[in-house]
Task: inverse folding
């Protein structure tokens, strides 16, 4: 392996690890203090999750599943999403990914380090969703998915493999790996992506030759274009969001006027938040990401 490629791979993996540590330091205490810690058995394995239910939440309320990134944890889930849940009235579940053969926690999406991993995380999340809906009385119709980085890859997998599980999906810094391409998109699914153009872990311009070590993947605009076509969107509106002082400019690409998301429902729109100069993060210094996620989800209630 050329030394330049090796150095690049080591740098990207170190960046992912440091990002996971930073997220844990910021959010771990909040999730552990505000959520109940639960388990559910799947495939003979005891799986963990944290569940946040705002005080006085009515039966039949919406549910949002939030998936952590590679090397991350449920305890380090995005705490700001709980604040949005308080304002708008929905529950949040933070599931925990298992360790891969390299000992790193995450979701099995086919990364090279996950070779030999037999865990079907799509099936696990589906089982968890059904359990939460039945056990806690959350809405069977109004259930949504979001995730960051490795969790974002899971968002694309669900849009392809089980679009019936969620009303709409929001990926943060997620990718379409080329190993997902044969799956296609079976039905329209409202989809949102937030991604920095200077994200050097999940490159905006893609990595067709696997120079980063995560497996080959598509450029972000190309990934989104596949969903735009599947949803039958025929128009695009481009809007510059008000720029926060000293922060990156965010450009919203709103693809619309396509097929209905469900019978009698609104069109399955696609939103791409292009964060100019943004890095591998939730981009919530540049925009109110968690509020934007719920605003998108609420279009499909």
Result:
């Amino acid at each position: 392996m050329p030394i330049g490629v090796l150095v690049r791979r080591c740098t990207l993996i170190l960046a992912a690890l440091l990002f996971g540590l930073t997220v844990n330091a910021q959010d771990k205490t909040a999730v552990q203090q505000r959520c109940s810690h639960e388990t559910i058995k799947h495939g003979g394995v005891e799986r963990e999750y944290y569940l946040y239910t705002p005080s006085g939440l009515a039966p039949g309320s919406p549910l949002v599943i939030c998936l952590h990134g590679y090397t991350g944890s449920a305890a380090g889930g995005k705490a700001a999403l709980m604040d949005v849940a308080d304002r708008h009235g929905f529950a949040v579940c933070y599931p925990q990914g298992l360790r891969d053969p390299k000992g790193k926690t995450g979701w099995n999406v086919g990364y090279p380090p996950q070779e030999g991993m037999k865990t079907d995380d799509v099936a696990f999340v589906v089982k968890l969703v059904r359990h939460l809906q039945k056990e806690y009385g959350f809405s069977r119709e109004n259930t949504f998915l979001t995730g960051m980085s490795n969790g974002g890859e899971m968002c694309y997998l669900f849009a392809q493999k089980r679009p019936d599980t969620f009303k709409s999906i929001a990926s943060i810094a997620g990718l379409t790996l080329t190993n997902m391409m044969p799956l296609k998109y079976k039905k329209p699914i409202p989809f949102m992506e937030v991604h920095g153009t200077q994200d050097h872990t999940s490159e905006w311009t893609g990595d067709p030759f696997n120079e980063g070590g995560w497996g080959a993947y598509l450029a972000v605009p190309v990934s989104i274009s596949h969903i735009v076509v599947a949803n039958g969107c025929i128009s695009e509106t481009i809007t510059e969001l008000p720029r926060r002082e000293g922060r990156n400019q965010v450009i919203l690409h709103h693809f619309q006027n396509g097929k209905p998301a469900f019978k009698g429902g609104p069109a399955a729109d696609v939103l791409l938040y292009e964060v100019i100069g943004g890095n591998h993060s939730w981009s919530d210094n540049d925009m109110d990401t968690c509020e934007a996620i719920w605003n998108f989800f609420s279009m499909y209630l």
Observations:
- The chain has one domain: 3-298.
- Confidence is low (pLDDT under 50) at residues 1-25.
- The chain has six helices and twelve strands.
